[in-house]
Design a protein that fits this description.
The chain is mainly alpha-helical. The chain is built from seven helices and no strands. The N terminus is likely disordered. This is DUF3775 domain-containing protein. It comes from Mesorhizobium australicum.
Length: 141
C-alpha cells in the first residue's frame, strides 16, 4: 500500500470540526456504556404493591445525558451537503469500506447517501468516534 505522496483530498469540513464530532461521539458512547453496565448490575424485582409507591426522580439526569446526543445530532444536521458527505466518507474510510486512495469515490458515494437522515445514520454507527479518527488518520488530516 502506498502512502499518499501528494494530497488527494481537500476537506470542506475542517479536521478540528471532525475532532469535535469525535469528542461528542465518545461522550455519547461512554454514557451508553455506563447505562448498560448499571442496568446489568442492578436487577430489580417488583412485588405487586411496590409499583404504587415508585416514582421516577432521575429526569434531570436523563435530559442532561441526552444533551450530548442532541448536540451531536444538531451539529450534523447543520452541515452542508459537502461537509455531511465528507463526514460519512471519513467514517467509511475509517471502517475500511474505502481505502484512503479511494477518497474521491467515498465522497461521491456519501454525497448520494447524504440526506436529512445523515445524523440518524451516523449516530447509528456503534464505533463512530473510532471510525472518524481512523478516517482522519488514513487521509492524513
Amino acid at each position: 500500500m502506498q502512502r499518499r505522496l501528494e494530497k488527494d483530498w481537500d476537506l470542506t469540513i475542517g479536521p478540528d470540526t471532525v475532532r469535535l464530532f469525535i469528542l461528542k461521539a465518545k461522550a455519547l458512547s461512554a454514557a451508553v456504556n455506563e447505562d448498560y453496565a448499571d442496568g446489568a448490575e442492578h436487577e430489580v424485582e417488583f412485588d405487586g404493591d411496590t409499583h404504587d409507591n415508585h416514582h421516577h426522580d432521575g429526569l434531570a439526569e436523563e435530559s442532561s445525558e441526552n444533551l450530548t446526543e442532541e448536540e451531536l445530532r444538531e451539529l450534523i444536521n447543520d452541515l452542508n451537503i459537502d461537509e455531511a458527505a465528507e463526514l460519512i466518507a471519513l467514517a467509511w474510510v475509517g471502517r475500511g469500506d474505502y481505502d484512503a486512495s479511494e477518497w474521491a469515490d467515498a465522497v461521491t458515494a456519501a454525497r448520494e447517501r447524504a440526506n436529512k437522515r445523515t445524523a440518524k445514520y451516523l449516530l447509528g454507527m456503534p464505533l463512530l468516534a473510532d471510525w472518524l479518527e481512523e478516517g482522519l488518520e488514513a487521509i492524513g488530516a
